[in-house]
Amino acid sequence: MDTDDGTPQQSDSPLTRVPAVSRSVKFRAIGVACVLSLALLGLIGRLAQMQVMEHPRYERLARRQQVVTRKLSARRGDIYDSNGQLLATDVVRYSVFADPTEVEDRMVTARMLARVLNLDTDTLEEKLAKEDRLFVWIKRQVPDADAALVRKLNLPGVHLRRERKRIHPHGSMAAHVVGFTDIDGRGLAGLELELDSLLTGKPGKEIVSRDGKRRSILMPSQGVVEKPFDGCDVHLTIDSCIQAIVEEELKRAADRHEPEIGVAVALDPRTGAVLGMASWPGYNPAEPAESPIGHRKNRVITDVYEFGSVLKPITVAAALESNAVKPDTKFDCHQGAWRIGGRTVHDVHGYDTLTVREIIYNSSNIGAAQIGLKTGKKQLYRNLVDFGFGRPTGIHLPGEQAGILRPLSRWSEYSVVSISFGQEIATTPLSVARAFCAFGNDGILPKPSIISKVVDSQSGTTLYELTPEKHERRAISRQTARQVREMLALVVEEGTGKRAKLQDYRVGGKTGTAQLLREDGRGYSWSRHLASFAALAPVDDPRVVVLVSLKDPSKNGYYGGVAAAPACGRIIRRTLKYMKVPPRAPDPTTIAEAQR
Fold it and tell me: Regarding the domain with residue range 240-285+302-453+481-595, which homologous superfamily does it belong to in the CATH classification?
């Protein structure tokens, strides 16, 4: 509609009326659009950064959550005795663990597991409350029956894992030799420690994927990446039957005489092979923590003592070897008290004149001291070194001590006197037994051995086999060895070792009743002793050397001939019977006396 002047007039119709938009609203709309555009650009940029620039990082995180590399444990090698009897082996056991993030009812789960596994409920609740962790051990290496009960409970978040557990089929037999492992199969003592790298083998590995509930899913492209390499099997020189004899007779002696500790060892004198080795008190290798540390020590190789009169045959051998004396050479033994310089040497019994033979079987300190002086310190020292004293034997067992043999430059004016009857020289029981092997092996000193062979458990290939002849050396001549052997036989037949005498076999040995050092280190104790007896048999063709030693026996006598000799004789008799060594022909004199 036009006005009078011809200009158009705005219509008042709502269909044609357009409201005016304020400038502030326009700016606000533009601002929101810009913010949204920037946010969208930022999101696009961040996505580009994550998918392009940071792709490798997030791929690694995803693989860490979804793909797992699991270790495949290798079987630990077995340990056998010389006859193929298992002394230590692995068995499969299940261990119980939990993922706290999957546990639905912590209290109920803890209560049910505690009842089945004999655990403390409160402790289990604390473990299951650790929701920041995906794995906690509940109980490891449980019996199969307990594992079956846990599996039957079907508790959310509770799982079972296969592990290997070390067991000892013969219980505590040879525990000090075999040793033990921790719960993860690492060797901690004995041969388990010494040969840990051989026994452990090499673990393998496999790759598996996991779903949202952490369950394993084996993908076609995954699986075993590296197969485990099982540990080697180790065969020992120890014979389980002889080991049982040694342990039984040592315990019998300990029960009767109640020593602080005791040791016994049986060797093959021709090879140095250990047939049996025991320390008392013993321990259970399946539960080593339940015994004091001292009970777990293999004292045959770790403890060092002055053995006293047991070493007198070494002095005599040195004198015979240097032609300083003959078996019939006589010495004045001064009725049991001999003054030399500012020192007086005593014998338990007083003697007038004794031959070298008589000095040995009567165990005269005065006679032995004079033999040593006549031999001279250089020859005496040289023979002690030839017998291996003052250094380890080299047996493959951890913790072996070298003993104490001071160099000649540190010998005092009385050293020859003291060393001649077993003082001022300290050594291990194994070293003493090894020295007696030389008497039984025509003068050749073998290297003690505990390992017979090492076998690759997968291929059956023998990787190592004992060859004693490579490690032996001559300590004395054959003639000297046989002369001393006959003297040792007189010790048992007429002297201080009569309680080791056997009807079926001729035994040769030497007693020792050494004073122990005082606890403050100031001189010798008059009340504490080391009772020992070292022996070989049969004298004409020795097949076994045995040493029994009791530290501070407190009941029923403390002399070596009383406390140690009977046990030594029983070990020899039972061992030779087991080895089927023919007994000697009956002595006509003994038969006639029995008939009368």
Answer: DD-peptidase/beta-lactamase superfamily (3.40.710.10)
Query: Over the chain, what is the mean pLDDT?
Result: 88
Q: pLDDT tens-digit profile of 177-212?
A: 999 999 989 999 999 999 999 999 887 777 766 655
CATH architecture designation of domain 62-85+170-236: Alpha-Beta Complex (3.90)
Q: CA 555, CA 40: separation in Å to the nearest integer?
A: 95
Structure tokens of 189?
């003592």
What are the residue boundaries of the structural domains of the chain, listed by start? 62-85+170-236, 94-163, 240-285+302-453+481-595
In this structure, what token pair is assigned to residue 287? Answer: 């539960």
3-state secondary structure (DSSP) of residue 65: helix
Q: What's the whole-number mean pLDDT along residues 284-311?
A: 95
Count CA atoms within 13 Å of residue 295 on its CB side: 12
Return the pLDDT at 596.
Answer: 45
Name the residue among 534, 320, 520, 557 with its Cα closest to residue 428.
534
- Partners of 159 in the β-ladder: 97
Least confidently predicted of 84-88, 90-94, 360-364, 578-582: 90-94
Q: How many CA atoms within 13 Å lie on the side-chain side of 560?
A: 28
Active-site choice (82, 95, 240, 309): 309
Who has greater pLDDT, 400 or 523?
Answer: 400
Q: Which pLDDT value is given to residue 594?
A: 40
| 589/596 Cα distance (integer angstroms) | 11
- Matching residue, tokens 């060594």: 581
CB burial readout 553-586, b (16+ within 10 A) else e: beeeebbbbbbbbbbbbbbbbbbbeeeebeeeee
- On the question of a common fold for 62-85+170-236 and 240-285+302-453+481-595, the answer reads no
In angstroms, the CA 319 to CA 310 distance is: 16
| Angle made by CA atoms 385, 391, 395, in degrees to the nearest 5 | 120
CA atoms lying within 13 Å on the CB side of residue 169: 13
- Which tens digit of pLDDT belongs to each residue from 229-265? 889 999 999 999 999 999 999 999 999 999 999 999 9
Q: How far apart are CA 117 and CA 28, in angstroms?
A: 69
Assess if CATH 3.40.50.300 describes domain 94-163: no
- Contacts by 204-207 with C-beta closer than 8 Å and gap 24+? 204/71, 204/72, 204/74, 204/228, 204/229, 205/69, 205/70, 205/71, 205/72, 206/69, 206/70, 206/72, 207/67, 207/68, 207/69, 207/70
Among this protein's residues, is 309 annotated catalytic? yes
* Sequence-ordered list of residues with C-beta below 8 angstroms from that of 138, at least 6 positions apart, any chain: 96, 97, 98, 113, 117, 119, 124, 127, 158
